[in-house]
Structures are given as C-alpha cells and as structure tokens.
Amino acid sequence: MSENKEDKKQIRVWCDGCYDMVHFGHANSLRQAKALGDVLIVGVHTDEEISKHKGPPVFTQEERYKMVRAIKWVDQVVEGAPYVTTLETLDKYQCDFCVHGDDITVTADGIDTYHLVKEAGRYKEVMRTAGVSTTDLVGRMLLLTREHFKRGDKEYTVALEHSSNLGTDSTARSPYTGCSQFLPTTQKIIQFSSGLSPKPSDRVVYVAGAFDLFHVGHLDFLEAAHAQGDFLIVGLHTDLEVNRYKGSNYPIMNLHERVLSVLACKYVHEVVIGAPYSVTADLMEHFKVQVVCHGVTPIPRDADGSDPYQVPKQRGCFKALNSGNTMTTEDIVQRIIRHRLEFEERNTRKEQKERIVLKALQKEHIKQNGNCEGVKGYAA
Predict the structure, then answer these.
(1) Residue 371 falls within a domain, yes or no?
(2) Domain range holding 295?
C-alpha cells in the first residue's frame, strides 16, 4: 500500500549567504534549491560577519532579511546565520542537507565555509547563474558603464566590452567574482514566472517603472500595490526608455535582468516586458486593468511632453501609493560611490582568496586525475 502524501516526510533544505543587493542570480539559486525539497530555509549573515569575512555589504542586514523573505521560493528566513555552515545549524532547523552554488565561498582565513557539511555528506550543489554577481553590479555603478544596455540590433545580444578589478565580465581574473555572459532564454523566464492568469473575478492592478537594482523601496511599493487587488502586473520599460528619463548610465541592470528580478518577487503575478511608457487604453483593456498605481515620487513626462498616466486618471482608476519607504535606486548608487575604495578593496581581496582556493583545487584534481580538465576556471 503506497503511503499518503500527507504522511511522507517533508524534505527540508538549507541555504545561506550574504544576499547583498539581492538579484536574480540569488533568486535562481534559491529556486534550484527549493526544487530539491519541499521546504526552503534560508540563513542570512549579519553585517558584522560579512564585514569580517568579505568587506562591507551594500544593504543593511534588516534590508537583506526583508528582501530574501520576499523571494517566492523562500519559506523561512533565519536571521544572523553563522558564516560557516555547521551540522548543528542543519539539525536545529531540521534540514536534511545544505545547498549552495558551484562558486567558492571562503572565510577571512581562506577556509571553505561549507567544509563541515561537505565532509558529512549533507551538501548539494546547484549551478551558479552565469552573467550576474553583486561585484559586477557594483562595477557597473562605479565605472558608469553602458555596455549592459540593449540597443537596436544588439537588443538581444550580450557584448563583452572590458573588464577590471570590479569583475564586469568573464575576462575578469577570477571565474567566480568575474562575470560571464548572461544569456536570456524563454526557459529562464518560464522558470521564474508564476504561470497564473487572472480569474474573471480578480481585480487586476497595474504598475510600471524601471525597477532597477531591485531593492526594499521597490519591494514595499509592490507589497502596497498587491494589496489594492488580486492580481498584480508590472510593466518594465526598455533600457533606452529608462535612460531617456533617468539619464547617466541608468538602468544599471538591463531589461532581461530586471524582468527576472521582478518575477522573483512573491507579490508579482505577471510582467510586461518592454511596456510602453504611457499607460494606454489599449494596454488597460488588453490586461483588463482596474487599478493603476504609482509611488509618490515625481513622474517624468513622456517624450512628447504628455502625462504618462493621463488615461487612468481620466478613467478615475489611478492611485498614488505611499509605501512609507523613500529608498530609490539613486540612493543605492550613492551608497556605493561613498564607499568606492572599500568596495574596490573588498572585491580585490575576494578575488585573491578565490584564486588561492582555485589553485589548491587544481592541484588536488591533478593529483587524483593527472590533469586539470573539468576544473572551473582552469586555463591551459
């Protein structure tokens, strides 16, 4: 007689990390981890621990706790998780095993933070998401690069323009801190999508914007918008549209990256990729939108000088929402610029530690196999 699903033991999965400037790479790792079990517990390190082992985080621990809680695959967040994952931690939260990406994570002393769970056979690995890292995003801000924009015939390509100690592409010296191409696919979008459609009785809410460097300000706004109805649709503007109204090298994250970052949020049901800047009657009718929301920040005019929310305002369904959070993407960029030297030093130290560990792995692999084939980052 087969056992009932209710009687079957739930597989509890543990993940931990800094989750600084939470991006779709973090979310994808957590999505893969959740797929290996039934319940996902995520430990998040404190600012003090991160500063000791890596250098200063961009987001505070309270911001990072909140961001991780909002990722749709996370069931529970453990605040102040130890930097080195122990068997005691797994047992305390009744987790069967720990999951991490296939990149290197070491302490300030160069020790693998997962060595204890690996030795106990309670460790599983998922693929790190190619094409994104917190280090890379910091580099884009400090270097004021625009190579990540998608324009014209390059809208769906990923160009490799240059590199630096801020790891802006795969030619950076460490294969972990360095950033390889992010190749957007329909499969990736499907994996992140809820796959849901609004029911006929659902009140559909629409918001639009850049949602660049997805942060707690965005999160609080989307939570408030979600509360206005039953089904939340987010329109994301193209890179060139965002650059038109924000200037400089904005957006920091390109359209493909922003789509996945927003889709990972538990309050969002659907995303319109490359939404028109002005909310049109056609858009509202197509998606059966009943409420259109915007935050209390100033609304730039469309290219022709018109109010982009003129139609929903005329229909009496526009709502200005005050989420109580005033954080903007510009605030995050200013944090980075104020601490530029600290972040550059942090990234250099991180890369040096990774290279030391990588060389040790290569030596061990050669000893066992006689060659370095299959070792990540090895170049003959």
Answers:
(1) no
(2) 186-329
Report the 10 Å Cβ neighbour count for 76: 12
Whole-model pTM: value is 0.80
Q: Are residues 92 and 200 in the same domain?
A: no
Give, to the nearest 10 degrees, the angle between helix 329-338 and helix 134-143.
80
SS (H, E, C) 287-348: CCEEEEEECCCCCCCCCCCCCCCHHHHHCCCEEECCCCCCCCHHHHHHHHHHCHHHHHHHHH
Indicate whether 66 belongs to any domain: yes
pLDDT digits (tens, 9 = 90+) for 322-341: 999 999 999 998 888 877 76
DSSP letter, residue 6: G
What angle, 0 to 180 degrees and rounded to 10, lies between the N-to-C axes of helices 61-69 and 216-226? 40
- The answer to whether residue 132 sits within a structural domain is no
98 in the same domain as 192: no
CATH number of the domain within which 71 lies: 3.40.50.620
Looking at per-residue pLDDT, the higher value among 155 and 260 belongs to 260
Three-state DSSP class for residue 272: strand
Q: Rounded CA gap, 335 and 356, in Å?
A: 30
Q: How far apart are CA 285 and CA 283, in angstroms?
A: 6
Answer yes or no: is pLDDT of 119 > 90: yes
CA atoms of 308 and 169, how far apart (whole Å): 36
Q: What is the DSSP string of 227-261?
A: TTSSEEEEEE--HHHHHHHH-TT--SS-HHHHHHH
Calculate the alpha carbon distances from 28 to 102, 227, 303 in Å.
Answer: 13, 26, 36
Given a contact cutoff of 8 angstroms between Cβ atoms, the answer to whether 247 and 284 are in contact is: no
